[in-house]
Amino acid sequence: MSHIFPRHCKSEFPKAVGGDGCFLIDENGKRYFDGSGGAAVSCLGHSNQRIIQAIKDQAETLAYAHTGFFTSEPAEQLAELLVSHAPGDLDRVYLVSGGSEAVEAALKLARQFHIENGEPDRKHVIARRQSYHGNTLGALAAGGNAWRRQQFAPLLIDVSHIAPCYEYAERSANESPEEYGMRVANELEEEILRLGADNVMAFLAEPVVGATLGAVPSVEGYFKRIREICDQYGVLLILDEVMCGMGRTGHLFACDAEEIAPDILCIAKGLGAGYQPIGAMLCSSKIYEAVASGTGFFQHGHTYLGHPIAAAVGCAVLNEMLDHDLIAQVQKRGAFLQDQLIQKFGNHRYIGDIRGRGLFRGLEIVEDRDTKAPFDPGLGLAGKLKKAAFAEGLACYPMPGTRDGHVGDHILLAPPFIATESELEDAVESLVRAVDTVI
Ligand code: PLP
Q: Count of H helices and E strands in the chain?
């Protein structure tokens, strides 16, 4: 009998015993193509020798040194590497152990920045509906997914949620994509004015929305307008690239595609590629200087901040991507994957939209392609699709609640950057069989 408290108490999962390139292997020897990298984590597959060696080397040199006493070589190197490629004037790196921790740190730093800056009234956070920023209480409060928030609502801080930029479902027929983008971006200005311009501390958004919408980028111009509004009202722009960052969309930083830079940026998942739990919050020199020249310390911290083995893995992952030009490969293989999806699902009766960037792709499932009407949520399609794909030897990431946290379904694909064209082709074939079995 297991003593593990599992994610799902009524489902039994196979035991994973090995990893080989893009495949996971269970105790019966069955192989699963890792079509979503777990949740967009395993970007280098499961047996990268450089990363494995980096773990061994660092463990033999220095396993742990508390950041309240020491800095460490891998942490210094990782910060330098990240900053040398980071957008705008992001200049300081706060190393944490995952995505939720990165978002918590970002929210607290935004608040402390305004206090250091003599604007203590700035306390409101604005985020978007149908976003996911993590499961700790601050990050959960910032997220705009009704289903995830529901039972914890009494514990959550008050956060405003404006519309996402979700063209497929929410652009009206009489709007151009640009007009739609301006309309929803301007909701930020309306909300800032409603709350009082001097009371808002930050706006938080994912450049490409992952788990809750299924790889949805914004329309052109949206994020430029968002940046403009934040600048006009002194509101910090926090971008959450925990899922879409670190090369996943064909850019090392997802916001590079938008030609804007945030004040604070959160990354995780692909930074450790699944070999170590690591995340990071990057901030601009202006924010860092306000703290450094003010109280002199960020009132935050965790025991495992800047863990040397995790940081060594972060360095090895980034160097592996840069040395092998994997970001360019993501663009090429991403275009190939999109092409395969369009060939196999472009005319599928129940697939309404195929979208995404790089190796971050989403399929939205609808009952009626003309009206875009979703299926009855009572059918539990997402869960059934996950099971059917698994039976086909494909691990992918279907989610319910695409439209509003309750109705709608999508499938998220985020395969490793090292996936070959033939592996991607096979994965799409498996997905076709899974979809046809379930619907
Ligand atoms: N932010 C985004 C955009 C995410 O997708 C996730 C996780 O899926 C998180 C934050 C939270 O990250 P973690 O699960 O590592 O805490």
A: 14, 17
